[in-house]
Design goal:
By secondary structure, this protein is α+β, with helices and mostly antiparallel strands. A 9-stranded antiparallel β-sheet has the order 7-8-9-10-23-18-17-14-15, with no helix packed on it. Strands 34, 36, 38, 39, 41, 42 and 43 form a 7-stranded mixed β-sheet that branches. The protein has a 6-stranded antiparallel β-sheet with strand order 55-57-58-63-60-61. Helix content is 17%, strand content 35%. The protein starts with a helix and ends in an 8-residue tail after the last strand.
Length: 963
C-alpha cells in the first residue's frame, strides 16, 4: 500500500478495519456477504415532502426531512450517512470506500486515537418523533482511556423545515476525575480526486485571514491545524459547488484539524479546549452540519446560514428561514450599504448584491433577522494559502523535538543490545522549511556503541565530547519529508541496564538545529530455544537492501524466534537473484514470503488505452486498469507478479490497492458484462445502466448493491487467475519452495463481511481458492485489545481458515508503541487464533521491541500445535469485569491468555474453566505450576500479576521455555 498514506491514516484514526454495504432498505444497513439474487427492488425512492420521517432497526436509526437524510449507527454512535437530497451528494464517505467512515466519532487529543469508542456499540434511543422534529440519542460508557467510566452522549436533532443537522455533544463525568481535550473525527467524502486535481477547496477564517485553498497546492502539508477566529470549517466542490460546512460552539473550540492524506476523502475535526472533569460534572457543546449548494466559496458562517463572496455580492445559503432579513455591509472602511433580498428561505441560496473588486478586502457584514444580529469581519478573496495554520507535526500529541525549521523523528531513548545489532531509523520532520535544499544529518555517538552498515555512506570523524571519545557521523543529501531518511544497525558494549548519551542535529546553509539529546540504554535479548515450524513470524523492512545490510540476518532472526524473510523488493525481472535469496533462506531453515501490489502500478499500461479504466463521466486514465480487461497488459502483469513463484517462494501476500477509492469502471466492456450479470441474477427486474444509477446510488440502493456484487465477481475471477498462474510456476520452479508444501496466499486487509477497494471480498476469494488465508491489517499504536478483538471476530467468521495478521510496530512518533506493548499485541494475536504475523515497521525495531518479541516467540513456539489446530475454549471466564480471557484447546492440552489493559497490572482474579483432562495449570513464562485441575469444571484463584497479560498452559508438564 502507499506507505505514507498508511501512516497518515493511522495518525488520523482512519483504520482499515470495517466497512458497511448499502442495504436493500436504506443506506448504512448491513447486507449479508455474498448475497445475490434476493434483493427487493423499489423503482423509486419514497421521500418526505414535508415533516420528518424516522425509521429504526437493530443497528441504526434513519431520520429524514425534505433536505437531509441521516443514518445514526450504533457502532461508534456516528453518522454513517449524511445525504444532501437537494444536491444528491453523500458526505459521510460512502460504503463503497474501504477506509474509515462516518461523522461525529469520539477521540481524545492527548491519546490521538481511542479505538474503543470508534468500535463500541452505543445505545440508540429515539427521544422525539413528531412531524416537526426527530431527536435521536446515542450513549456509551467508556471502559478505558482518559475518559474511563464517563458517559459519551451524542444527541442528533433534525427539524422539518431546516437544512441542517444539529448535534449536541455531552460528556458526563459521573464519579470519576478526568482531564483531557475532546476531539471529534469526521471523515468527509467529496467526489473527484482532490489530492491530485483542484476539485475541492477548504475554507476557514483564521487569525491572518481567510484560509482558502485546495489540497493539491504545493504549499500544503499533509495535515493542518487551523487557529480559527470564527468557529467553522467547510469545503466546496469546484466542479459543481456542492459543499459541507460545520459550525461549532465558539466557547469550546480550540482548533480545527484537517487531514487529507488520501485521494478521495479528508477530515474536518474540531478539537476542543482541555477540560477538567470533576465527579458529577458534565460538559456540553453544540455542532451543526450544513450542506450547501450554489456557493463557490465560504467566507462566513453561523448555525443559521453560510455565506460566500461572489462578483455579484454576498451569497447566503440559509439553513433556516430568515424572515425580515436585512444586511449592512461595509467594504474596506467605505460607506455602509443596507441590502434586503426578497426572501431568505431554508435551502435556497440568495444574494445580497453589491460590487466587489478583485483582490483582498476587509469586509464587515451584519445581518439582522429573527430578532438577532449576526456580525462578521472577514477578508474577502484572500490570497492562496494566506493563513495562520499550524503544521501537523507540531500537534500536542507529537513527541518530536521541534527547533525552528528542522526536526528529526526519534524516540527519546534508543534501546541497543550487546547480544545482536538492531535496526535504528531517523527521519526528516514534515515541517522542515528547507525542503529540497542540501542538508546534513549529524549523529554524535559514544565509543561504546557501534554503527553498522549505515545507509548513505556517512563521513566519520573521531572527537572528544566532555573528555569522552565519540564518533561523528555526517549524512549528506537533500532534505526529505518522510520518515526513513537514513537507517543503520546499531549495537553496544554497555552492560544491560547501563545508559549513555548520543546527540543528533541537522545543518543546512545558513542554519543549524541545536543538538538533540538521545539516551542510549542497553537491553538483554534472551535467545529462543527454537523457531516455530508451523507458525509464520517475520519482521518487515523498508526493503531487501536493509535486510542485506543486517549482519548475520538469518542467525539474528532465528535468535528471536522468527522464521520468515521477505522478497518484496527484489526486481521481478531478475529471477536468478531471487532464486539465490530463496536458496540462502532455505539453507538457513527460513521461509520466504513475497509481497506484491497487483494491478496498482502496471508498466506499459499508459501505452495501451484499451486496458484503461473509465470513470462515470467518460474520463479515462492510464493510471488505472479496467478490472474486466483481459489481454496482453494483464498477462504481462500476472507474469511479473508470479515470478516470485519461479524463484520458489510459496507464501505470497498481495497488496492490491488498485483504485484507491475511485469509482471505476464504466467502460463499454464493464457495462456490457454487468448487463449480462444483472439479467442472469435478477431476471425479473428492469435493467438500468450503472451510468444512471451510480450518479445517485442513494436513490437506487438495490441497483448499487448489484453493481458491487458484479465488481466482486470480476475481482474474484481476476485473483483466481493470479493464484492459478502462481501455483503453476511454483510447481515448475525446481526450487521446491520454502515453507509449507501448499501455496499460502493472502490479500492485505481483505476480511469477512467487507469489500476492499471495490472488488475484493474474502468470502468469494476464499470460496474460489484465490486466497487461503485471511489477512487483516492493523495499525494499532500498541492497542493489544484491538488486535485481540479483531482476530477473535475474524476467526469466528471464517472458522478454520488460517489468519496471518499484518501489524505495525510503529510508523511515526505519534504511532510508535513501547516494546512491551509488542509483547501484549503478539500474545493477543496468537491466543485469539492467528497463525502468524507480518509487519510494516516504519521506524525499525530497536532492542526493546526485539526483547519482547523474543519472549513471546519463546513462549508460543512450544504451543504452536494448539494455536494451529486448536478450537476456541468454551466456558472460560474471569471474575473481574476488566480481565479478558482467550483460550485454545487441542486434545488434552490448552493455552489460555488472561489480560487487563485498563490497568497497569493484572489484579487477583478467579478463573473459571473447563479442563479437557486431569492436568496441571502452568505459568508459561516461569514454568511454575499454579494449580492441579480435575477434568471438567474448575474454579482457580490466581493472585495479582505484575504485567497486563499472562499466558497459561493446561497439560501434564510445563512447556519448555527459557523464561
Amino acid at each position: 500500500m502507499n506507505r505514507k498514506i498508511a501512516v497518515l491514516m493511522a495518525l488520523s484514526g482512519v483504520f482499515l478495519l470495517s466497512s458497511s454495504l448499502f442495504s436493500a432498505s436504506w443506506a448504512g444497513e448491513d447486507r449479508k456477504p455474498g448475497q445475490s439474487g434476493a434483493l427487493t427492488f423499489a423503482e423509486g425512492p419514497t421521500l418526505p415532502e414535508s415533516g420528518v420521517k424516522v425509521e429504526q432497526n437493530k443497528d441504526s436509526v434513519k431520520i429524514e426531512n425534505r433536505f437531509i437524510k441521516a443514518v445514526i449507527s450504533a457502532r461508534g454512535g456516528k453518522i454513517s450517512v449524511l445525504y444532501d437530497k437537494q444536491a444528491r451528494q453523500e458526505y459521510a464517505l460512502g460504503p463503497s470506500v474501504d477506509a474509515g467512515s462516518g461523522l461525529f466519532k469520539d477521540r481524545i487529543w492527548e491519546k490521538a486515537d481511542w479505538n474503543e469508542l470508534f468500535g463500541a456499540d452505543f445505545k440508540l434511543e429515539i427521544l422525539s418523533n413528531t412531524p416537526k422534529e426527530a431527536t435521536v440519542r446515542a450513549q456509551y460508557r467508556a471502559l478505558s482511556g482518559p475518559g474511563k467510566g464517563m458517559d459519551f452522549v451524542h444527541t442528533y436533532t433534525l427539524k422539518a423545515d431546516e437544512c441542517r443537522l444539529k448535534v449536541n455533544y455531552r460528556i458526563f463525568a459521573n464519579e470519576l476525575w478526568g482531564e483531557f481535550s475532546p476531539w471529534l473525527h469526521n471523515v468527509v467524502n467529496f467526489p473527484g480526486d482532490f489530492k491530485n486535481k483542484n476539485t475541492v477547496a477548504i475554507f476557514s477564517q483564521t487569525g491572518r485571514g481567510l484560509f482558502s485553498d485546495t489540497p493539491s497546492h504545493p504549499k500544503f502539508e499533509s495535515a493542518l491545524l487551523f487557529d480559527c477566529i470564527e468557529p467553522w470549517i467547510g469545503a466546496v466542490s469546484e466542479i459543481d459547488q456542492k459543499g459541507l460546512c460545520m459550525v461549532v460552539d465558539a466557547k469550546r473550540l480550540n482548533h480545527f484539524y484537517c487531514w487529507y492524506g488520501a485521494e478521495y476523502f479528508f477530515t474536518m475535526e474540531p478539537i476542543f479546549k482541555k477540560e477538567k472533569f470533576a465527579p458529577g460534572s458534565s460538559w456540553s457543546t453544540d455542532i451543526w452540519f450544513i450542506p450547501t449548494q450554489g456557493l463557490g466559496s465560504y467566507h462566513l458562517a453561523t448555525a443559521e446560514y453560510v455565506g460566500g463572496l461572489t462578483p455579484e455580492g454576498l451569497k447566503i445559503f440559509p439553513a433556516v428561514s430568515l424572515p425580515e432579513a436585512s444586511a449592512t455591509i461595509v467594504l474596506d472602511k467605505g460607506k455602509p450599504e443596507t441590502l434586503k433580498p426578497e426572501k431568505v428561505e431554508a435551502g435556497k441560496a440568495v444574494v445580497f448584491p453589491f460590487k466587489v473588486r478583485a483582490g483582498t478586502h476587509d469586509l464587515k457584514f451584519q445581518l439582522a433577522a429573527n430578532g438577532k444580529d449576526y456580525d462578521h469581519a472577514v477578508r474577502a478573496n484572500s490570497e492562496r494559502c494566506d493563513s495562520e495554520v499550524i503544521p501537523a507535526t507540531q500537534m500536542g500529541s507529537s513527541s518530536a523535538a521541534v527547533d525552528n525549521a528542522a526536526a528529526l523523528y526519534s524516540k527519546n531513548t534508543i534501546y541497543l543490545s550487546p547480544d545482536m545489532p538492531v535496526s535504528i531509523h531517523f527521519g526528516m520532520a514534515d515541517n522542515f522549511k528547507e525542503k529540497g535544499k542540501k542538508v546534513e544529518l549529524v549523529l554524535e555517538i559514544p565509543e561504546n556503541s557501534n554503527v553498522i552498515n549505515p545507509s548513505g555512506n556517512p563521513v566519520t570523524e573521531k572527537f572528544l565530547r566532555s573528555g569522552k571519545p565519540y564518533t561523528k557521523y555526517r549524512f549528506s543529501g537533500q532534505a526529505q519529508s518522510y520518515y526513513n531518511w537514513c537507517s543503520m544497525f546499531m549495537s553496544t558494549t554497555l552492560k544491560p541496564g547501563a545508559k549513555d548519551n548520543m546527540y543528533y542535529y541537522v545543518v543546512w546553509e545558513g542554519g543549524a538545529q541545536k543538538p538533540q539529546l538521545l539516551t542510549i540504554e542497553s537491553v538483554k535479548i534472551e535467545a529462543c530455544k527454537k523457531t516455530p515450524k508451523r507458525l509464520l513470524a517475520g519482521l518487515g523492512f523498508y526493503g531487501t537492501g536493509e535486510q542485506k545490510r543486517w549482519p548475520d540476518i538469518y542467525k539474528n532472526l532465528q535468535r528471536v524466534g522468527l522464521n520468515t524473510v521477505s522478497l518484496s523488493d527484489y526486481d521481478c525481472t531478475k529471477i536468478p537473484d531471487m532464486k539465490e535469496a530463496v536458496l540462502k533462506a532455505k539453507n538457513a531453515g527460513m521461509y520466504t514470503t513475497a509481497n506484491y501490489s497487483p494491478t496498482c502500478a502496471i508498466p506499459g499500461l499508459k501505452n495501451n488505452s484499451d486496458a484503461w479504466a473509465e470513470a462515470a463521466d467518460g474520463t479515462r486514465t492510464g493510471e488505472f486498469i479496467c478490472p474486466a480487461y483481459r489481454g496482453p497488459v494483464l498477462d504481462e502483469e500476472i507474469s511479473r507478479a508470479t515470478s516470485y513463484a519461479e524463484a520458489g517462494a510459496s507464501i505470497i501476500f498481495w497488496d492490491a490497492e488498485s483504485w484507491r477509492g475511485r469509482e471505476f469502471c464504466f467502460c463499454p466492456r464493464c457495462i456490457g458484462k454487468f448487463e449480462v450479470y444483472f439479467k442472469k441474477h435478477y431476471p425479473r427486474k428492469r435493467y438500468l445502466s450503472p451510468k444512471i444509477f451510480e450518479l445517485d446510488p442513494q436513490q437506487y440502493p438495490e441497483y448499487h448493491a448489484a453493481w458491487l456484487e458484479f465488481r466482486i465477481s470480476i475481482g474474484t475471477e481476476l485473483f483466481r487467475k493470479y493464484k492459478d498462474e502462481y501455483l503453476r510456476r511454483l510447481k515448475l520452479s525446481g526450487v521446491g519452495g520454502t515453507g509449507p508444501a501448499q501455496l499460502i496466499i493472502g490479500s492485505y486487509d481483505v476480511m469477512p463481511g467487507r469489500i476492499y477497494h471495490q472488488f475484493q471480498r474474502f468470502e468469494e476469494l476464499y470460496a474460489a481458492g484465490a486466497v487461503n488465508i485471511c489477512m487483516p491489517s492493523l495499525y494499532v499504536a500498541g492497542d493489544a485489545l484491538k488486535v485481540g478483538n479483531t482476530v477473535k471476530d475474524v476467526r469466528k467468521a471464517i472458522g478454520k481458515a488460517r489468519i496471518i495478521l499484518w501489524i505495525t510496530g510503529g510508523s511515526d512518533d505519534s504511532f510508535e508503541c513501547d516494546g512491551i506493548d509488542q509483547k501484549y499485541i503478539l500474545l493477543e494475536l496468537f491466543l485469539n487464533g492467528a497463525t502468524g504475523f507480518t509487519t510494516w515497521p516504519y521506524l525499525g525495531w530497536d532492542a526493546l521491541d526485539v526483547k519482547y518479541l523474543s519472549q513471546v516467540m519463546n513462549m508460543v513456539t512450544p504451543l504452536e500445535d494448539i494455536i494451529m489446530d486448536g478450537k476456541v475454549m468454551e466456558n472460560l471466564t474471569a471474575s473481574n469485569q476488566y480481565v479478558r480471557t482467550a483460550g485454545l484447546v487441542k486434545g488434552k492440552e490448552a493455552a489460555i491468555l488472561i489480560s487487563d489493559y485498563y490497568h497497569d497490572a493484572l489484579p487477583a482474579v478467579t478463573l473459571k474453566l473447563n479442563s479437557p483432562a486431569p492436568s496441571g495449570l502452568f505459568d508459561v513464562a516461569t514454568g511454575k505450576k499454579l494449580a492441579v485441575l480435575k477434568a471438567g469444571a474448575n474454579s482457580i484463584e490466581l493472585p495479582a500479576y505484575p504485567e497486563k497479560a499472562r499466558l497459561l498452559y493446561i497439560g501434564k508438564k510445563a512447556p519448555v521455555t527459557s523464561y
